[in-house]
Amino acid sequence: MGVAVQVEGLTKSFGSQNIWSDVTLTLPPGEISVLLGPSGTGKSVFLKSLVGLLKPEKGSIILSDADIVTCSEAKLYEIRRLFGVLFQDGALFGSMNLFDNVAFPLREHTKKSETEIRRIVLEKMDMVGLAGAEGKLPGEISGGMRKRAGLARALVLDPEIILFDEPDSGLDPVRVAYLNQLIVDLNAQIDATFLIVTHDIGTARTVPDNLGLLYRKHLAMFGPREQLLTSQEPVVQQFLNGRREGPIGMSEEKDVAQVEAEMAALAARGGDQHNGVGPKGATGGDAVPPQLEPSPGLPERRAVRRRQERVARMLHTFDPATAAAIRESLPPDLLARADAGVFASSPDVAGRHRSPDEPPTSVLPGPRGQW
């Protein structure tokens, strides 16, 4: 099973330019999480901070009892082996064929024989649907195939955490759908912790167990998918419905007066004008869309049961709309346990005990009235 990643109070700036401040979240082990946000909000910077390529000024990133922000270079090198990363463009070496690209981490970081390396590489390439393509060069294949080759390379060291930096960028909707299914299938097979940075609303609605949104240099919200898909916060509604009306403008933020005028006009028209991007979910009363399931023949995702137990334990802390959506998704045995208060003092994802009245960590920092 993948490991939990606990981020506490993380702040990152470049010179005088603050990227984001006080980011706090926990990536639950083995679950798929998605991080959304307008362009320029520092989502890729967050990924680079997680693997120690960038050093935040404040905060901590804890996994396997080590803090990436403050640990030694030797320890950081060791921790990085827990990660696999799929970069936006695949980041393949153009002069190497796909086999050598995928084999590169094994040759650099292990002492495995070429026979063992060949077995592992072919296994991972088969997992991503590239069996038989190992002799091709990156320039000879499509963008979707390059993404899958980059994913195979991210898998060869059997990482416990896999980061996806906008895996859908440059792909048509059909290839995005195939890639989303591949991500779900891989999670079912390896049970690692996944974090996906994306702009794709369809991916955000159907793939993850958890959703987060970066906005105005803060983490606006992070929590179970039902929490964001039923949220009444204007910034969350706007982003997940792809609307113009709301706090997000062309340069990320809008003037407060403009936001108020837009929201008043929207209310006068009778509420949300759905843009046809999947079910309304977050704003219009439709059911939260179901998650993608693994392809036939693959095991069920073990993360689903773990996540259901976690949200059942937190059920009493959510607003009515979120609680209702979660209740619809829970199996009868967990729902009965939640109603009976069995989870009242169960340990949360961080391993500590949460009191019955303690809210989840998904909160909106700053003045809510501005949003």
TrEMBL record:
Pfam families membership: ABC_tran
Keyword vocabulary terms for this entry: ATP-binding, Nucleotide-binding, Transport
Origin: domain of life: Bacteria
Molecular function GO terms recorded: ATP binding; ATP hydrolysis activity
Domain ABC transporter, first and last residues per copy: 5-241
NAD listed as a keyword: no
Disordered as annotated region, ranges: 270-304, 346-371
Signal peptide: none
Protein name per the record: Phospholipid/cholesterol/gamma-HCH transport system ATP-binding protein
Organism listed in the record: Geodermatophilus ruber
